[in-house]
Structures
1.
Amino acid sequence: MGKSAGFEAMAMAARDAAGVLAPFKLARRNPSATDVVIKILYCGICHSDLHQIRNGWGITIFPVVPGHEITGVVEQLGSSVSRFTLGDRVAVGCLVSSCHDCHSCNEGLENYCPKLVWTYNSHLPDGSHTMGGFSTAIVVDESFVIKVPAKLPLDTAAPLLCAGITVYSPMKHFGMAEAGRSFGVVGLGGLGHMAVKFGKAFGMKVTVISTSPKKEREARELLGVDDFLVSTDKEQMAAAAMSIDYIIDTVSAKHALEPLLALLKVNGKMVLVGAPDAPLQIAPITLLAGRRMIAGSLIGGIKETQEMMDFCGEHNVTAIVEQITMGSVNEAMERLAKSDVKYRFVIDMRKSESEMQRPHHCDQEFVSA
Ligand code: NAP
Ligand code: ZN
Ligand code: ZN
């Protein structure tokens, strides 16, 4: 619990690992000098939200209000806020605080700060429990608020805050964003479809590697992918051996790495961004034979997130979304668990207001955040 002074926001929370989201009342803090109060208009649903509400990683503190793909407008400003004015179109991703003083923070890599505070299921230095974007408002220190370019719609920009930056950052860092190179994207979900979009924007030849043959046609026609491999089709996979320069693996569940590594050329690189609940196995020989590299990457820092947003504004890169309201959020979570989403659910918060205060959900609580 945090400070008592604050204002009320409506939200949806899961109260236990059954992961059912139900209306919930929050007391958001009053803004400090450096805080921005944001009216949330849209929030994307990331597979991490699903892992968290079901306690898949074993770290969830209940009740949990998920949501870290937040867009909205500035509604109120702390007395010393300098980067924003009322009405600005803004966004918040996975982070809301860090120490500003460690090696990572000094490099603009707040996402690797040992004291980073997640947008939800985390604690601020004053002890308050953070609650995420499945809510009507959020209060965030201005140094963790991103500007949304005028060109980008707030609904299709929301998933950039996690799905977008999570694939953009390793593509840049590991030198994978090279025109003319071949780029494999494993898993065509929220992160995967953003990786395809960035791959195309960087001028790469993009191959999707998927468990879902039914996704092929749209992947080619709508997303413009150059090639589509069904990972369970051994013949197709064998024919594509050693043909891809770089792979990004976005898979949310346990899966075999060897067949994917075998697709890499000599000196090929594969970056894992998916975070399955269970460990993955690797036979070193698949790396040795081909001098291949495997790495991981976690979201991105604030400076790079802004850089990515600006890139998206210039190149018209946005997510393809299915808009929903809170009334169908539990159904959306079930569909996400079955890889049945094209390609990101985004919640319209204004249209959800009545659904977050229905009288028959009268087990509402009041928690500070
Ligand atoms: P998503 O929309 O559910 O997409 C995941 C995709 O993985 C599915 O669409 C499916 O694609 C594939 N897949 C699912 N189960 C599979 C299985 N058993 N075997 C092989 N492929 C399978 O999820 P998302 O929001 O993109 O998130 C993906 C993962 O990244 C999650 O684990 C999430 O927690 C993690 N994540 C990590 C970071 C980070 O910073 N590193 C940030 C955000 C999310 P096909 O149907 O095409 O096979
Ligand atoms: Zn996420
Ligand atoms: Zn730090």
2.
Amino acid sequence: MKIIKSTSVLIENLDQLENISLIPTMGNLHEGHLSLIKEAKKLSENIVFTIFINPIQFNSKHDLENYPRTLQQDINLLKEIGVTILFIPSVNDIFPVKPNLSYKMPIISNELCGKTRIDHFKGVITVIDRLFKLIQPSYAIFGKKDYQQLYLIKRFVFDSKLPIKIIEAPTIRNIDKLALSSRNNLLKTKDINLAVELYKKLNICAESVLNGVKIHDAELIAKKELVKEGWEIDYLEVRSQENLKKPSYNDSKLVVLGAGFLAKVRLIDNIEFCIPTTI
Ligand code: AMP
């Protein structure tokens, strides 16, 4: 594994590689991240793995400063599992000048996570655009855990007609079904058991809809339960898998997405489900 820290060295090394799979991350690696490497290995021998804590996708300085950083541990894990290049750029390397995204973000980027995290997804797409231009991968692998992010990256690739195949990887969970996340490491012990309630309530919401409960009512019940248990809810909504809009009468492929805080730590999760007929 080559560890590269500057764009100029990266470009030299990319010259010899074809058919690249790109895996962008912010580090503090866990089994969820490593599962993306397993997906990449099915597609290509040449894997470029990036660790970059992207400042322009954070809405608060506190959140950026507190994001878990475990670089040496991450390097050891990656050496063990094996990637071709680990790229760890600095902010100056990625954004030598103030970034300016020409792509017009879809309206849906201002809903769900984007409603309270203003310009978060613009920050995400800006860094992805930079990495895509720099690395020109054939494949890029992203987790469904960040469902809205994945949707917006797919839209960006489609709208920009980029020759990159986006690979969607399933969410990896712990034994209790809590979605693995770097932010879980910020939870206090007493909140770790509570964290899995988000998944449980999303599941109950999906099951209720499947059993004929009106979507709005199912969302409300799940939110109330979470608040009772100590969650501060950002949103909990059923949306169409196809476009992330509120479901219309003929949408059968749905996803319930939720985000909330436990002692200021923001967690997200989602569950896809299908209803057999119209709502
Ligand atoms: P992050 O480092 O949080 O920016 O995540 C980097 C990539 O790993 C993104 O594509 C995430 O969707 C993906 N990812 C994070 N957590 C998980 C998980 N539990 N299961 C699968 N993929 C994940």
